[in-house]
Amino acid sequence: MTQNSDITPITKIPGMLLYVQVQKPVKAYQAAGTEPKPDEWKASVAIADEDFIDSFEEYCKEIDAKISIKKVKTAQFEELYKCPPPEDAGKNVWVLTFRKSTELGKTGRPVPDKQVS
After folding, report:
1. Cα dist from 80 to 40, 66, 72, 74, 86, whole Å
2. How many domains does the chain have?
């Protein structure tokens, strides 16, 4: 990954928290027939601002980061997430999910406490 000093980091995400699991890690999704994955900490945010999503995707592309964004129709949001959509929701809402493994890369070593707390 190359560092570009011209990239302005994104420090705030305008959205509504949907799911946060940071106290105790959860099982990571594992596709059938794949190697087991370590547990992970996880947080999902509902975002109604399409311009922010576009700029966030571009930012992540520039820093070579993997992201998980799911586009959901506002009409289906409450049925899927069991809560009302963000107040400023238009036709669509995007669900941005952040994940952090409990292990450092593929080393199998646990994340040090100083990086967890």
Report:
1. 22, 24, 9, 10, 14
2. 1
Residue 115 has pLDDT above 50, yes or no: yes
Which pTM was predicted? 0.78
For residue 92, give the amino acid letter.
N
Q: Does 96 map to a domain?
A: yes
User: Residue 67: inside a domain, yes or no?
Assistant: yes
pLDDT score at 107: 83
Classify burial at 77, counting beta carbons within 10 Å of its beta carbon; exposed 0-12, middle 13-18, buried 19 or more: buried
pLDDT score for 37: 86
For 1-117, strand residue ranges (E) read 16-26, 40-47, 68-73, 92-101
Note down the domain range covering 73.
16-27+37-116
